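[scheduler] slot 2 assigned
[scheduler] job type: sequence-to-structure, two independent chains
[scheduler] chain ordering preserved from manifest
[runner] begin chain α
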Amino acid sequence: MTQQLSSDKIHTIAPAGHYIALRIGFAFPVEEVNALPAEWIEHYTQHRFMLFDPVMRWAYENVGTATWAQLGDDDPKNVLVQARSYGLRHGIIVSVFDGNKEGQRSYGSFAREDRAFTDLETKLLHAYVTRRHFEMAPPTNLTMAELEALGMVRDGQRLKEIAHVLGVTEGAVKQRLKNAKLKLGAKTGSQAAALAGQYGLI
């Protein structure tokens, strides 16, 4: 059985850096980790490489894994060539999509300077991104009443207003928000509403 990779061990497999985006929907990921070199991030952003990066294009069009070397033939802006001067010489991309109705996919791009990734390392990174993708799936046990209350919190309504509109007590609204926070793993009502929005629930 293959060992399970933890987030704090990724840097040992990808010491040159990595980027992970979990559950990207229409615009933003639910969670994002950018551990690439700061100089490369600045260069990449300034030159708007996201629009031309063959690694990112592959991640949105495929599932599974690919090495950066496999993608180098379709790189009109030489993004991968330029990445090498920042220590990102060898890389792999992992893309995960489970057919969810929200259209959310997750991907991770991982780099080394010294050598190509082994098959075992590739499998471990693929398993990690897949596991995190499913861990970040939206909860399915939120009630319509809880979602209604969260939607009103997101719209800036106060507890008293929500209770009045819904025709319930403030205590009932508090309980709905408390339940929603628990199910979403949020600390505040505002955070719960933001998460529900990111998941496309409200």
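[runner] end chain α
[runner] begin chain β
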Amino acid sequence: MKTFESPILLYDGTCGLCNGAVLFILKHERVSVLKFTSQQSPLGELVMEQFGLDATVQQSLVLIENQRSYQKSEAAIRTALLMGGFWKYARFFRWIPLIIRDTIYDWIAKNRYAIFGKSQDCAFLPHVDKKRFL
């Protein structure tokens, strides 16, 4: 089993919303702790398989942190917490019952291509350290 020192955010590289989320994180995080890889990449597929996730089903976001996988609303909240600064207040979303958070998350994820479109380009900014993308 491959272990990871830094938290890794796996995102759907063909999703406009997911690519936008990666760009948003890169722009707004206080400390650069997250690494990124698309779920369609060889490493992304390997990590998905390693954590028992179906690599053929593109999920919007999956966070790997401390050798555990987090999905749906919990992945989004934990990612925000890792961003630091103002984003630490995302923890208050945990007051909303998980079933409600994940129902809203699932609706957005189901409709993300229709609302935000598809992209053939993975998120990348030229001034960002290329080591952040695995």
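[runner] end chain β
[qc] chain β: Residues 1 and 130 are 25 Å apart (CA to CA).
[scheduler] slot 2 released
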